[in-house]
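Chain A, query sequence.
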Amino acid sequence: MKHERPRIELSGQPLSFAEMVRIGSGKVALSASATGMARVEIARGIVEDAIKAGMPVYGATTGVGAMKDVEWSPEDLDAFSLGLVRAHHFGTGTPFSCSVVRNAMAIRINTALTGQVGCTPELVTAYMRMLEVDIIPVVRRTGSIGCADIGLMGQIGAVLTGVGEAVYRGKRMQAADAFAAAGMKPFTMAPRDSLASLSVNAVSFAAAADATRNAAASIRVLLASGMMASGALGASRDPWLSVRHVGTSREALIGSWLCNASDAWQWPIKTHVQDPLSLRMVAQVFGAVIENLLTTGHKILAATGRSDDNPVVVEGRVMTSGGSLPLDVTILLESAALCMAHAARNAFNRCVLLGNGQRRDLPVNLVPPGRIATGFGPIIKLAGEIFSRVLSMSNPVSAQSLVVAAGLEDEAAFLPLVIERFERQMRALMRLAALEALLSAQAVDILGDKPKGVGGMLYDVVRKHAEFYTVDRPLSAEVEAIEEELGSGAFMSKLIEEVPIASFDDFFALGSLERIEQRLTQEQVAI
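Chain A, predicted structure.
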């Protein structure tokens, strides 16, 4: 008997991170709500009435951009609709992951179900069918200035018509071959369907959701390595205790987590009242970071249930719209990138403290007493390079001026570029967490400490891949192995189980897919 996949119903309401993780995995089936499809049909009727009445409908009976005043005759519309979507298959570079593309298609379906787009119900069904058989267009990531993902969404739309490339059953192939293998036929675009297939920011919103979730995971690991380093350096826990009473709500949340995560590992000594700021102010730094990430995450989710098309169908009319500029999401992501720089600086400062011999009589460069070695001095330089790398990608780019389409298009958010830089920051942050954990493990072994709880988890990961340092040796592969395990869904699930931050972990659906499915099952049983 064929196993039926779990189902998620799209209705036009915003998606959650848990839903997008499941959709992106390709392990759930999608359906469209009856009320959503009814709204699609009503909106389509309004568009068709406008076309029959001879009204120019942008991108349906007229050209686009600089060709907006060119009107097509009825007999030209089929050729124009086909050519429009294929002309916008111009993206280049490394493709997005299949999970991001699946979510982009789901977002396009979901926003169409608001009844404000005017596409045909058949277009919605065609997208659903592609997801059902798992034909996933290859979407090269360079091709959008962030005012509708025309060069990105155009690659999805073009595949729908039978050209371009797609991944089918794990193999990359020509779209026509994928359709033939799946027993599908290419879709014929009706007027308005072509523009509805390409002139939205669905790929950017899907990629932004993925990047922000990864950022949340990176910050959780970096917070844990920061706690471990603080223990190795003998920091006072009093500032973490006091922030629960005098800090902001997010600072108090982080202070509570730091206290709970360190309870199992009793600090061996209590140091000066005034520890370095990178130890005292972990809660303040990370409190600001998670506040920003939560705000950004909510903004991205709202975008998954809102039509950003042009034109739109509202108040019974087809109207021009400026909704394709995703500036709200872009600016918050740029702010998140700045937050990442603060988190990176905070971690780098602790790495310097671990190696400079100023705390707990730790030896310089963490070289064990009696050993002749260079030690971890070079690795601390790597930490500095990573911090500078994160900082260099925190400068905003969205306010750059760009004028195209004969001056009609003079606003752009550059959201895909912002996301790409943000993703690079996340990879750098996870490596910085690996370095901080490696240095901390060396310090606690020199001192004879026995970290427990979260600190013990990190220690075990480090020692799984890197022995106690006594003789100079290459560290590159060891650092990468630690980074890979700390960044895994399995480790995140263990970290959450050990000491959760429920409001943060659950919102971003952190951890493995199995943990997410288990949590959803528990919620359903509770209901």
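The longest strand covers residues 7-10. The longest helix spans residues 415-447.
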